[in-house]
Amino acid sequence: MDTCGTSPEPLLDALVRGRGPRTVEIAGERIGPDRLLAAAGAVADRVAGAGTVALLARACRETVVGVAGCLAAGVTVVPVPADCGEAEREHILRDSGARLLLVPGTGPPPPARDGSVPLLPVSAGESGRASHPEPPADHAALVLYTSGTTGPAKGVPVRRSAIAADLDALAEVWQWSSQDVLVHGLPLFHVHGLVLGILGALRIGSGLVHTGRPTPARYAAAGGTLYFGVPTVWSRISRDAGAARALSRARLLVSGSAALPAPVHEALGALTGQAPVERYGMTETLITLSARADGPRRRGHVGTPLPGTEARLLGEDGRAVAPDGVTFGELSVRGPTVFDGYLGRPADTAAAFDDRGWFRTGDVATVDEDGWYRIIGRTSTDIISSGGFRIGAGEVEDALLEHPAVGGGARGGPAGRTTTWGNGWLPSSSRTVREPRSWRSSSRRGCRPTRGRARSTSCPTCRATTWGRCASPT
Q1: pLDDT digit string, tens, across residues 352-403
Q2: Is the domain covering 31-159 a CATH 3.30.450.40 domain?
Q3: Among 115, 224, 264, 319, which is least packed by CB within 10 angstroms?
Q4: CATH architecture of the domain formed by 171-378
């Protein structure tokens, strides 16, 4: 399968040039680089000219074959969550304009309504021989769908050049090379699991082990050098001392998609001998901020902008906030990995960008004098205004999770109300635990009262107990 065409660098560079992963293993099934190329060639031959093709993103090697084949043919891939409901699937297929739905693996095909797109099975055993030129760099490689928390899921076209730029920047920042073996068990329909977790290995040439279910035992048995996970995965591993210690042989642990709780960060550092690297990104921007493999790891911080990416924080008055590590601002980014606009939604696109091309992420963050960012939460849901304070719900959660009597928690509020907030907390045991003096004093650091008081009774955090980490005052 020749996909080089006139481009000096195909998107899946290592795979196409014969420097691909030594092996790709997905949920226990392996496929070598030659077989992967041949099977992807067969898919490319069958989908060429289709324009846009959806793919049921199951955790199997045929999903990798399907994605690689579509990209080789210059077809835009629309990953569809394998476990999504019929209504969501039909919305994605209709909104994206997909001409086909690729069905990888041996599982049953999804139920389809009358008039739905044709199904095309994907096999790892077929071979193709046709030559397909490398598409233009600005061609959409993927259309990824947002979570749809504020309405129907929106399509985000992701350019081939954006994927290449992001993976190359991460290869530099994380020192990611063909000598690595990447391990993860993340879903294959979003940025972390698909773009980084599959396309990254095929572009860089590192080995790849997808564990299927991301259990501590499977992570420990994989023997990788580079591990990707989300906080729930790392939390489970941190509670399994044997599995965590097995990861001490790894070169780098990466956490993303949500803030890593402080107790998990500390437990992983103690058990594995290294703190995880945290990073930040969105479907619309790919990964834009990260700590470096050869730099410090700061608990609760997502690092600095990747090479080629710019980031800034603006206050409610539209001015840049002070880089003091405390003052809140809405995060905006721009650079080669940021998308051009939502699929078929010009009004949403216009609202997401300013007139200088900055994308408004909708996330609130702080930045310190060293340029390190800390994500506080979403402007629409996670920022509480009370008694002259702007309080990050995540900050309250982190403070509570540091208490030795708290084993876990979730934040939320009454249905249908956006002006109130609440938390539910799970004790780690039924016994009474005295608050250590060191914990009380450290948890109070960063509380910024107004009106000159040492502690404001108007602050929900400080009113509830004698400790808390409050946000900067409004």
Answers
A1: 999 999 999 999 999 999 999 999 876 555 554 443 444 545 555 655 665 6
A2: no
A3: 115
A4: 3-Layer(aba) Sandwich (3.40)
